[in-house]
Amino acid sequence: MTATAPPVKDGAPADERLLRTSPLRKLLGRPELGSVVGAVAVFLFFAIVADSFLRASSFGTVLYAASTIGIMAVPVALLMIGGEFDLSAGVLVTSSALVSSMFSFQMTANVWVGVGVSLLVTLAVGVFNGVMLTRTKLPSFIITLGTFLMLTGLNLGLTKLISGTVSTKTIADMEGFASARALFASQFSLGGIDIKVTILWWFALVALATWILLRTRFGNWIFAVGGGADAARAVGVPVRTTKIGLYMGVAFCAWVSGQHLLFSFDVVQSGEGVGSELIYIIAAVIGGCLITGGYGSAIGSAVGAFIFGMTSKGIVYAEWNPDWFKFFLGAMLLLATLLNAWVRKRAEATT
Using an 8 Å Cβ cutoff, are 350 and 24 in contact? Predict the structure, then answer.
């Protein structure tokens, strides 16, 4: 018995998977296209209105500001592609830093012991969010809002109970602090630009997340779950495991950000982090993620974070009133969302 080729009609393959896709169609189909266009526009705008914006030192500052948002925007983007939200991500960063600091100080242990305990506690919060979501079937908005409120109260209450103030005690003189700082809060010079280690963490996480989304089975599960959990479950996708894994990804990156916060400033204020979760979501949406799930990219979240960094520092370099920052951020969110919607419609129209 011999295999036969699929029938051809009018010179075209019967199987649509054999059709060649034009470069333009591929470009229009990329979720991050709109954010890239926006990033170029923002860059050119501040390059014109702020003379110091194009300096090498300014570029390093912009990258650092972008990395502090981008580290968290990456897992938040993956979570949004999976159709869920996490409103506790901002305060979880602070919780991670507080656990590391207070455990090391109270137990007079090596700083790395506190870092390890913080990782376990932070991942446990991620598992809690994922399990509560999949078991109760409540919206992720409600689940993570509850976690947000609990963590906010715990951060303040436990810090005041243990330390007597709203901030932690210094651990700079404890064993292991220098090596931990080298991993989470060091910097080096490259071509006259001061590069913070968070930038390397950010790039590595973007590369890892992109590989997961485009080259692994788990990445297919993320898109499937975000497109429709019931349909994904019907074809064998482990929806529960996928969503718990996504929340653990958010928790891991919150741990990285929390350690950077601790080892950069040594002392952590227990009230920090409130409101940051919205910035992470904004960066992901500007980067092309849909609120409804099933669409987006890790690279887009990086571009969204870069736009955030350029805007926050560009306003300073232009010597404008920083009170206008949130106005520009809101305007960029709306414009990027409209541009992303237009690009997606154009992509669908060319298919």
Answer: yes
Report the alpha-carbon distance of residue 327 to residue 346 in Å, rounded.
29
User: What's the length of the chain?
Assistant: 351
Structural contact between residues 167 and 269, judged by C-beta atoms closer than 8 angstroms: yes
Distance CA 267, CA 170 (A): 6
Q: Which helix (H) or strand (E) holds 189?
A: strand 187-190
Beta-carbon neighbour count of residue 113 at 10 Å? 16
Q: What are phi and psi of 86, to 5 degrees?
A: -140, 100
Q: For the segment 220-253, what is each residue's pLDDT rounded down to a tens digit?
A: 999 999 999 999 999 999 999 999 999 999 999 9
Say which residues have a Cβ less than 8 Å from residue 334's Cβ, sequence separation at least 6: none
Cβ–Cβ < 8 Å for 308, 283: yes
User: Does residue 17 have a pLDDT over 60?
Assistant: no
Interior CA angle at 122 toward 119 and 124, to 5°?
A: 105
Who contacts 272 (Cβ-Cβ below 8 Å, separation ≥6)? 93, 94, 261
- Which pair of tokens denotes residue 303? 């571009």
Running DSSP on this structure, what letter comes out for residue 164? S
